[in-house]
Design a protein that fits this description.
Elements: H1 9-14, H2 17-23, H3 26-43, H4 49-64, H5 73-91, H6 96-109, H7 115-118, H8 125-143, H9 145-157, H10 161-175, H11 200-211, H12 217-242, H13 253-264, H14 269-291, H15 295-309, H16 314-318, H17 321-342, H18 345-358, H19 364-377, H20 385-402, H21 407-420, H22 432-437, H23 443-471
Helix pairs in contact: 4-5, 5-6, 5-17, 6-17, 8-15, 8-17, 9-10, 9-13, 10-12, 11-20, 11-21, 12-23, 14-15, 18-19, 18-20, 19-20, 19-21, 20-21, 21-23
Length: about 475
């Protein structure tokens, strides 16, 4: 919903002089200038050569380095292409979809992957769920429902940007137990409930099979509620300080929002259809397990309603270039990351790490701390929380237990972090491409602040969480 909260031109003209001046700050003008130059370069069909050379050089150098003894040559080749693609996605010599498509092309050209394998993730539901979210967003914008909801929030909490941010964060957290899709929501609240992310039950299942100790719904919520609430309070405020909004205080905004709502009048027919479709889709997400309807099927059904009623047209869907670009690069990363796992590279990495840590002879607290950091930051190589859990959770839990870490504590910590690590990159979880696609945060800043927030979350969950887990008897 973030995309609907951007002030309109009319809003700018009626803000206080101080707020209007901040909107025209030099930093904002410089950011817009750089974005314009980048778009201009791409519109002329040219790649930015320095970033392109850096990306290719990364892949070529790694390609010709000798692979470790226990890593197959084809796995090493795929790793070199994957990392070259990641460098290209970070430096953006071309739009992200083009970079990812070139990466897939390199996989097929070098026989590292077959065509079917390289493009296999285009049949994965998660990239399509993300694309469908963009189409739904078009409906919100076109009908004006997005503006109506935004004005409602602004009228209640819009006297400060921080108050508005908190209202969104805690509203999202209230939905978390009932919507098991990170593509539909965000990171922190997904770590607080067993049913808040589709992969959480996988972690619980692997825990039961590895240490024969199940994690129940209430057990999960009880352990996560305190560090989760602290994160929900601290993280928005920290971002407010280190990446401040252009307009921090706008005491006239609530009044303006109410005036806008009066001007809009009652909900139109299309707004009502849009609202009903949203309720239908969310309802199917909540009850999907009972009705045997998965998330992407529910979203397709919702989009079908919008298409049939004319609220959104197929031509408008085709014009959503960001949706198709996101679908391309996200599917490409899922495919390459998946085959890194199938080729045994992730398994080799996991075993190498755990053998190294086990040989240090440290206390279980220090050993587990090292394991946590390696497990957490290895998510740079994953485009899916479920893939990360499936590839590394069992190995790290087994070694943590063998090194003396209380098994149930280790399982809970790894389960919680399997959600939090999704905020590291713009592809780490399903919702990240949607937020990034809105275009408000440059890629370098996303990765930079993603790392900063990851450190803060680790301090909160291992510090505050550690004290809480001691109090409730987890260790």
């Amino acid at each position: 919903m973030i995309v609907f909260l951007s002030p309109t031109k009319n809003t700018h003209s009626r803000l206080s002089p101080q707020s209007a001046a901040r909107l025209q700050s030099p930093r904002l003008r410089e950011r817009r200038r750089r974005q314009y130059l980048r778009l201009l370069s791409r519109s002329r069909g040219r790649a930015a050569m320095k970033p392109l050379i850096a990306s290719i050089a990364t892949g070529v150098i790694l390609w010709f380095l000798p692979a470790p003894d226990d890593v197959s040559r084809i796995a090493w080749q795929l790793l070199s292409i994957f990392l070259a693609t990641i460098v290209g996605i970070i430096t953006q010599p071309l739009p992200l979809g083009a970079v990812a498509l070139m990466g897939l092309g390199a996989c097929v050209l070098t026989k590292t992957l077959t065509f079917a394998a390289a493009f296999s993730a285009f049949g994965d539901p998660i990239p399509w769920l993300i694309a469908l979210a963009f189409f739904f967003a078009r409906g919100f914008i076109k009908t004006g429902l997005g503006n109506r909801i935004a004005y409602q929030f602004v009228s209640l909490f819009g006297s400060s940007s921080l108050g508005l941010g908190y209202s969104l964060v805690f509203s999202e957290a209230l939905l978390a137990p009932a919507i098991p899709s990170v593509s539909a929501r965000a990171v922190i609240s997904s770590s607080m409930f067993l049913t808040a992310m589709a992969a959480n039950p996988l972690a619980a299942n692997l825990t039961a099979t590895t240490i024969n100790m199940p994690i129940g719904w209430m057990d999960w919520a009880k352990a996560a509620i305190v560090p989760g609430l602290v994160s929900l309070i601290v993280v928005p405020f920290l971002l407010y300080l280190i990446y401040p909004p252009t307009v921090k205080s706008s005491p006239d905004a609530p009044k303006l929002a109410k005036e806008k709502l009066e001007t809009m009048g009652p909900m139109s027919k299309n707004e009502i259809i849009m609202s009903g479709t949203l309720l239908l889709t969310v309802g199917l997400w909540i009850c999907g397990s009972v009705l045997n309807v998965d998330a992407v099927t529910a979203a397709i059904l919702g989009l079908s309603v919008l298409l049939i009623t004319g609220v959104v047209t197929w031509k408008e869907c085709l014009a959503e270039s960001v949706a198709w670009d996101t679908l391309t690069w996200f599917a490409a990363l899922i495919a390459m990351a998946g085959y890194l796992n199938k080729y045994g590279l992730i398994s080799w990495f996991s075993q190498t790490v755990v053998q190294f840590v086990g040989g240090l002879g440290l206390s279980w607290q220090l050993s587990f701390g090292i394991l946590v950091l390696l497990y957490f930051y290895s998510h740079y190589f994953f485009a899916s929380g479920a893939a990360h859990i499936g590839a590394m959770f069992t190995a790290f839990l087994s070694v943590a237990s063998a090194l003396g870490t209380p098994p149930y504590l280790a399982a809970c910590v790894l389960s919680f972090l399997s959600n939090l690590m999704g905020g590291l990159t713009h592809y780490g979880i399903g919702s990240a491409p949607v937020f990034y696609g809105a275009g408000y945060v440059p890629l370098a800043k996303w990765w930079g602040y993603g790392f900063v927030i990851s450190v803060v979350n680790l301090v909160i969950w291992l510090g505050v969480g550690g004290v809480w887990w001691k109090a409730i008897g987890l260790w």
